[in-house]
Design a protein that fits this description.
- The protein contains twelve helices and no strands.
- It is mainly alpha-helical.
- It is elongated, with a radius of gyration of 20 Å.
- The N terminus and C terminus are likely disordered.
């Protein structure tokens, strides 16, 4: 039977060996995005993504070794569209604008709830922990790190402080995400001032 007369065969997308087939990858990411919207991180699985995308599981696992890796790919593309990186020339203003945009993205998009799921899974499985620590965090903190590095170039903080301040920013933002307090945007400016080591009285003058 010719494969074009077999609906299942015609729906099946193949990859070009180790090189990614753009059509197949787009179908996988679209199916994964749809599944996150419908079922969140706990209901997210490579099996279901493969079924919806018409792609082979082995292909997806070659591209994304764990469901955490596939989620990270979706999260990255969605977040980059929704969360611009400001450049006002002022550290506190940049941090306030960036953090506010990020919190609103987390609160309004299923990726926010899914990120909570990834953080929770990382506490119980080494694969998810590795994905979160070694692949998610370095890339997803690159924007706020750039904001702080640019501020160091302007003399607003010392270059050797950047790593610690990024950790403080992540801790604050993830705490608000995990305890579902993303609506408390009024707390952002005060905490960003603390991170920047700017006394509140001085900032109001």
């Amino acid at each position: 039977m010719n494969s074009t007369s077999n609906p299942a065969a015609s729906r099946k997308r193949t990859s070009a060996g180790p090189r990614r087939n753009p059509e197949a990858e787009a179908a996988v990411l679209a199916a994964a995005r749809e599944l996150i919207w419908e079922k969140g991180y706990s209901g997210f699985s490579i099996d279901e993504v493969a079924r919806r995308a018409g792609a082979g599981k082995t292909t997806i696992y070659r591209w994304y070794p764990t469901k955490a890796d596939l989620f990270i790919a979706i999260y990255t593309s969605e977040r980059s569209v929704s969360v611009p990186v400001p450049d006002t020339g002022n550290l506190v203003e940049d941090l306030v604008q960036y953090t506010t945009s990020l919190w609103r993205f987390w609160a309004s998009h299923p990726a926010g709830a899914a990120l909570r799921g990834l953080i929770a899974e990382a506490q119980g499985t080494p694969e998810a922990l590795s994905a979160l620590r070694d692949r998610f965090l370095p890339d997803r903190t690159a924007d706020v790190r750039k904001v702080m590095t640019d501020a160091a170039v302007r003399g607003e903080l010392r270059a050797e402080e950047v790593n610690d301040k990024v950790s403080l920013w992540v801790g604050f933002s993830w705490f608000k995400l995990l305890v579902a307090e993303l609506h408390q945007e009024e707390a952002i400016r005060s905490v960003m001032m603390h991170i920047a080591d700017i006394p509140r009285v001085a900032a109001q003058e």
